[in-house]
Amino acid sequence: MDSQKVEAILGPQTSEETSSVAEIASKKQIPVLSFADATPNWATERWPFLLQASQNQLAQMKAIAAIVQSWEWHQVTVIYEDIDSSATGILPHLSDALREAGAEIIHVLALPHFPSSRLSEELEKLKGGQCRVFVVHLSLELAVHLFEKANKMKMMEKDYIWITTDAFTSLVHSINTSSISSMQGILGVRSHFPEDKPKFQDFCKRFRKRFGAEYPEEDNNHEPGALAVQTYDAVWSVALAMEQKSEKLNQKLLRRILLSDFDGLTGKVEFMNQKVAPAHTYQIINLMGKSYRELGFWTYGLGFSDTIIDPKYNCSSMKDLGQVFWPGAPWYTPKGWTLPAKDQPLRIGVPIGSEFQQYVNVEYDELRNFTYFGGFSIELFKALVEKLPFYLPYNFIPFNGSYDDLVKQLYLNNFAGVVGDVAIVARRCQYADFTHPYTESGLVMIVPVQKSGNKTLLFLKPFTRAMWILVAVISIYNGFVVWLIERNHWPELTGSTLHQTGTFFWLSFNLHVISQTYTANLTSMLTARGLEPTVNNIETLQSSNAIIGYSSISFVARYLEDVLEIMPVTLKVEKLEPSLQKVQNWGSRFNVCILVKAFPKGSPLLPSVIEALLKVSESGKLRELETSMIASEKCMEVNLHDDDDISSLSHSGFWMLMLALLKHWENHIKQQFNRRVGQEESSGISSDTHEARFVLSLNIETVA
């Protein structure tokens, strides 16, 4: 640096190179323009003369995540070059972008900078796994070696998906024909440059001419790659800054570089926080034949498009860009994962000792050395597997432990799925993904019953207060009318005052229809009030500090303590006897869970399982299983009435009956009256007396 009088340094392409050079250059106050994948913020703070001349990789990783999301893939394996810039600059950005797209990195393979003999061994491990989506971030030389080896191992055939980053994709034009034949179907993402501009076309023309002169042995297309274009713009940034420098002060040179603002080959060139402005548009290509086909573009914030000229035609899915040529040339889109081999069936965990054996029942036969798995959840899973569009080998594996530990086994990759009476609770979601619920469950109180309490005033309940007043008024009125008219004709209405008073009240309340209705309603109330719970609600338990038994289901105790605020000292684990599973239940029901099936986070099986579960439901099989296996076990609810819930009869209840029967009774009374008149005229009774008796009879029957 001293002898050559260096004023700026361009070229470090890895984090290791950049840190070594930047440490020395910063002491000399010499600007360093790095082309590493990423420059962390701490590096620019430590070395103030360090600048990142390569564009940020975040947008490129989002473009790859958008491709993964378009085809509904959920798991990805990343193969990258074992250098710090890839580990710190690529993987974090890609992981975040995939997570936002509903996918995740399940495996990473770091390859040494130079081809290694262990590559075949590592690829064999990947081939034995289920994930078939591979994102490759390697240099050109290392990527070519990878794909040639993968092709020999039959990993460039049907069901495999390979996606490459700009480090390789921008140089595919320089790959010879024999090598590119082993890369058929690869999807590549590369930086997009405004190639239609005269400045870019002039650069490409001069680049091809000079490259061909210096490397005549290269017979491929001598097109510049992304690194060449970015380097050209970086050189211009330094050149323009040095041209404006009036004195030999490197501090001012750094400041002028940071103030760069011109139209370069990559577009607008400017620095923000010591880093060149990031790219926003990437091109997607598909390797096929002897070259590649341009599928379209992805723009940050806009999505996919056939062209970047008119952004209004952007779409969110790559499916709209047209047919993709996949490895092995299948007519279908690869699903991104493969089924386990027949000799390696899926391990499905099943809980042992479930208290609800109608849902899941595990029994071991020692004589035959055979484990029986039965119950509603087991049969539903079997029906679900039959609806899958592919063969799925599996084995049920009994698990003796808590339900929380059972779900954690998915996170630890000990099980590929869990089947049983497993409920969705919040703390389990960090370990597993769940299917749609197939049945609802909850918590209920089971308490003793006792006979109803005080019935002293129950005799007043059959009628409402208004009805009692109406009955009293009409009855007294009827009694008075009968007494007034008939007292001179009926011996029973004569005599002492006490005798006439008793007869008067007897006439007043001798209403047969009302009496029968009253008796029937009172009898119903006495029957309904035969039983009542000893505990009506959870608040009673909270205040009484009574001992509360609960089943050993893992989430119940925490729910009782954290949500219902029950004192832990009052809780006691109790085995739920089969007879109690059918007992009548009282009080509040707490809908705190729904039964589901669980799978590892990001499991590629989950979408297919959910779809199959819906097919089972729509076919009626789910209803059939519920009816035959669990419907008969449901608790019979007993409707216990409080005093306020008993239906008392009011005057409106009789109104329609009164109107309907009035005409019928009137005709009946007239017929009886006419017959009596005919009989009594022969005895010499006056017509006035007949009329009075008719009015009296009509009055009494109408009230009844």
Shape category:
elongated
* SS strand fraction: 15-25%
What is the radius of gyration computed over CA atoms, rounded to a whole number of angstroms?
45 Å
Span between termini: 122 Å
Keywords: Receptor
Protein name: Glutamate receptor
Organism: Citrus sinensis
Structure, explained:
This protein is of the alpha/beta class and 704 residues long. It has an eight-stranded mixed β-sheet with strand order 5-4-6-7-8-12-13-14, sandwiched between helices. Strands 15, 18, 19, 20, 21 and 26 form a six-stranded mixed β-sheet that branches. A three-stranded parallel β-sheet has the order 1-2-3, with helices on both faces. Helix 2 links the parallel strand 2 and strand 3. Helix 3 packs parallel to helix 5, helix 13 packs antiparallel against helix 21 and helix 15 crosses helix 16. The longest helix is centred in the C-terminal third of the chain and has 30 residues. The radius of gyration is 45 Å and the shape is elongated. It starts with 8 loop residues before the first strand and ends with a helix. The C terminus is likely disordered.
Give a quick summary of the entry:
This protein has 704 residues and is an alpha/beta fold.
Top keywords for this entry?
single chain; 704 residues; alpha/beta; eight-stranded mixed sheet; six-stranded mixed sheet; 23 helices; 40% helix; 19% strand; disordered C terminus
